[in-house]
Prior knowledge:
By secondary structure, the chain is an alpha+beta fold. It has 3 domains: 21-155, no CATH class; 185-299, no CATH class; 312-482, no CATH class. The chain is built from 18 helices and 12 strands. It has a 5-stranded antiparallel beta sheet with strand order 1-2-4-5-3, with helices on both faces. Strands 6-7-9-10-8 form a 5-stranded antiparallel beta sheet, with helices on both faces. Strands 11-12 form a two-stranded antiparallel sheet. Helix 7 (185-195) packs across helix 10 and helix 14 packs across helix 16. The longest helix has 30 residues, at 315-344. The chain is elongated, with a radius of gyration of 31 Å. The model is unreliable at 1-28 and 526-530 (pLDDT under 50).
Amino acid sequence: MVKIIKKNKRETKNDDQEKDKNLPPEEQVSSNFSKNFDDNFNKFKAYLKDSDDIVFRQFTSFISNIKCGVIFVDGMVDKSLIQLHIIQPIMWGGALLEEQKVQDVKKEQAAALIVERIISVAELKEAEDIDKAMLPLLSGETILLIDGYDKAIVIGTRHLESRGVEEPPTEAVVRGPRDGFTETIRFNTALLRRRIRDPNFVMRNMTLGRRTKTNVVLCYIKGIAQPELVDKIEKKIKDIDTDDIHEAGQIEQYIEDNKLSPFPQIQNTERPDKAATALMEGRVVILVDGSPFALILPANLYQFFQSPEDYYERWIIGSLLRSLRWIGSLLATFAPALYIAVVSYHPEMLPTTLALSVAADRELVPFPAIIEALLMEITIELLREAGARLPKPIGQTIGIVGGIIIGDAAVRAGITSPSMVVVVSITAIASFIIPSYSVAIAFRVFRFFSMFLAGILGLYGVCIAFILINIHLVILKSFGVNYMAPVAPVQLRDWKDVILRLPIQYMKRRPEYINPVDIDRYEQDPVKEM
């Protein structure tokens, strides 16, 4: 086996060498810089000769007429910064020209003088070869080359057009902050740093995608987050081997534990306050350049039913709203299945008056209850998808008006009964009450599963569906944390913030199921610890 691996490595190396020989002469260039300006400048031109958005600007310094040049990507840099703080000072000198004679400075000293005394830009670093300079260049930085200097100077001039900070449309709250993450990763890190001004708040930069070179930031608080958890997540991220990463959802699919489950094992959010709260609990947050969604991990089922305003309102209001969401999730999953089971197999369970009313409604319906329910549920799903894909004002109109018109027409045509329309409407409304879109989709998937079993086995099928769903949830794990924790396994201390939320004074400790390094939020309780 070892011989085969070595043979494959030799073949790969030989293939790479053969490939280099087949390159045109202008591309057969060494990646290391030399002290010759023309050689270095031409290396960049050879690498980027087919890219028309790359700007090459050559000029002469006032210091001994040394040749210099800048290279940048048009549209990704601040051109006024390049003009006023790089090119113009190097060409004319300004105050430096007045205070000392520098025209006869040697080439070896020119680069140091330019960097230390002339360029007035905050971010400067050096690149030893063209490979190390290429990524910053294509990310929006400017490359400065100086004759007689065998390194490239990377200058921070990035300026990308971006969306402003605004309230996340999918996580609107009645009470709470109105800012949200954007597609620019540095805006997102600043939003988190603004909320957590702790020197132990760590942000690790990584690059994913062999071709896209997407910036990824791993965030955690040292002294709270478990080091083993951080290392495990970092290793999983670094193991991602692909050409392209464009969105946080791709990373989520690569690193989650169970690839086949419809339930998300990593939470995503557009709200900085939600991400900051997760960090303070000992969780880890992942930010991806180009994505307004932050990933929070590990995750359990209960945090998907929590909304930031649960903690901004009084505890009893937050508890009632959270309980309402759980009731809504049960209705969204099992209401159609219960209707099918009762109408088809157990009509005796209904009060006599209601049973007679339902029977009268279904008298002209030619389909069994399971087919009737499937037709209406599929219609609702089509309307939901159409409303989501259309422009927002039109989509809302389509969803409301379309539902009313189609429901009324279906009843008049005898395709469905009024009672079925009521059940489907309640189901649709209940599914919207779940804060997490990802979990809401998972419950919609299991709704059809429970309907199928109810159509075959009646209430026994509904019970079997409920049991199987719970077994699946208990088996799931998110980076070593049980998906149903702290209910399964039972950890009573953490029940203070699960389905109900106790007053904030009683929540001294961080969740134990995450195993944080520092378990206490504060040293002494304002009230006696429960």
